[in-house]
Amino acid sequence: MTSKPLLAVEDLWIAYDRIQAVRGVSFAVGDKEIVTLIGANGAGKSTILRAISGMLPATQGKVTLAGEDLLSLPAHVRTQRGLAHVPEGRGIFGNLTVEENLRLGAYARRDEKIAGDLEEIYQLFPRLGERRRQWGNTLSGGEQQMLAVGRALMSQARLLLLDEPSMGLAPMLVREIFKVIKRINQQGATILLVEQNARLALEVAHRGYILETGKITLAGPSQELRHHPQVLKAYLGGS
């Protein structure tokens, strides 16, 4: 990445009580890039996303979106600035219909394009269009993941934070979700992806960062990381 980043994270520290979960992490995401954070459970990946979106406070450090300081803003204002977080576990509203969930993603918008954007979501995820009147809690796990991503897209976010989008899904649905991630990026979305399926994450991402016990130990273009001995051994089943 040579241009000025859309998201810049500098010397980020995050603690749970007295446990330092993230220690001096710095990375960047360029406009229209997919960047992935890869690491074992407990490495700090989801913690970083929560701090960026405002779900967790940072101990110290700096996070900017298009040059604006995010850490001084409450979570709902960060959303208004163009940040959308699809959390691990999806976080949809089971007692609302598919369409009601999607419209919630556009709650802060005041433009006249919401109906048109809804139809675009249904084109991107035809199954959601078929189930637009169904309750969220009647959807399969894959459909709920589609709904969570669709709801984030309805906010017209400048940056999508995707946390473990493949978790709990059958292999066929995992492939489908990753095809959609690639497609929405090709349509102009910028994505920061946290994913345990390192192979698929590195297939769709432009660049990646490897996290171990709260610190970045390796970074580079995805093509290089896929062939790096450390990544092959720890995450891709190679030697």
List keywords for this structure.
239 residues, alpha/beta, Rossmann fold, six-stranded mixed β-sheet, four-stranded antiparallel β-sheet, 10 helices, 10 strands, 36% helix, globular
Structural class comes to alpha/beta
Record the strand order, biggest sheet.
6-7-8-3-9-10
**Rg on CA atoms, Å:** 17 Å
Provide the helix percentage: 25-40%
CATH architecture: 3-Layer(aba) Sandwich
CATH C-level name: Alpha Beta
CATH topology: Rossmann fold
Largest sheet: 6 strands, mixed
**Terminal-residue CA separation:** 29 Å
How many H/I helices? Answer: 10
Tell me what portion of residues adopts beta-strand conformation: 25-35%
Count of strand segments: 10
The gross shape turns out to be globular
CATH superfamily: P-loop containing nucleotide triphosphate hydrolases
In short:
The chain has 239 residues and is α/β, with parallel strands linked by helices. It is built from ten helices and ten strands. The chain has helices spanning 45-53, 75-80, 98-104, 114-124, 126-130, 141-153, 171-186, 198-204, 222-225, 229-235, and strands at 7-16, 19-29, 34-38, 60-65, 68-69, 83-86, 159-163, 190-194, 207-212, 215-221.
What does this structure look like?
A hairpin with a 2-residue loop joins β4 (60-65) and β5 (68-69). The chain has one domain (7-235): P-loop containing nucleotide triphosphate hydrolases (Rossmann fold). The protein is 36% helix and 26% strand. The strands form two sheets. A six-stranded mixed beta sheet has the order 6-7-8-3-9-10, with helices on both faces. Strands 2-1-4-5 form a four-stranded antiparallel beta sheet, with helices on one face. α3 packs parallel to α6 (141-153). The protein is of the alpha/beta class and 239 residues long. The mean pLDDT is 92.
